[in-house]
Amino acid sequence: RTRPLVAPPCHACRRRSLQGRRQQPRRRRPSPAMRPRSPEGKVPANRTRSPNLKQAPATQDLRPTNVRERGFATGVVLVALLTFSSFLGKMTSAMTQLLNINAAKTQEETKLRRFFHDYHITPQLRKQIWQCYRKQSEKLVKRLRISDVDYFSLMPERLHTQLRMQLYVQNLKTVPIVPHSLLQNSVEAAAVCKLAVSEQVGGPLQEIFTAGGPPVPG
Hints:
Layout: H1 11-23, H2 45-48, H3 67-119, H4 123-138, H5 151-154, H6 157-172, H7 180-184, H8 186-195
């Protein structure tokens, strides 16, 4: 096959094509003044806004207009301030109490570490003391005793004896060395509960009785 030969364009043809391109008018966007207007003289909204943008709603100016509305607005502001102040005061007191508890615990641990370091306590005994301290510090809820309530010392002796009998007789029945006939007599049981029974509150891992000694005080 033979390919047809195409002659290259001459210099005059190139000049004519360039002049024809230059003479063609460019398309320009119309200015706002040249845009079509409505009969009222306003530019339509669809031509001034971009279709991808949404116009935010305008804020409304809300304010009291008379004395009653102003008084109501002032009352609302005062109530809000009082509520916030009381809430802030409670939070501050709670945080202060929590910091005091943590400070006391930190101070006690510091004393223990200093004591172990000063007296060269062995690591085995030190570990046992730390384990016991952590278990007891988790349960610091102390049970109330009769001596903790001041009014019981001012109460009549008859009521005080009845109170001690109701507290201790049921526990004394579980003790093997106490005869049941002694507890059946109200006079003797009252004397036992008054003179021979005392309260000792112990913590976790604490011995109630020791060999050859009295009960460990709580």
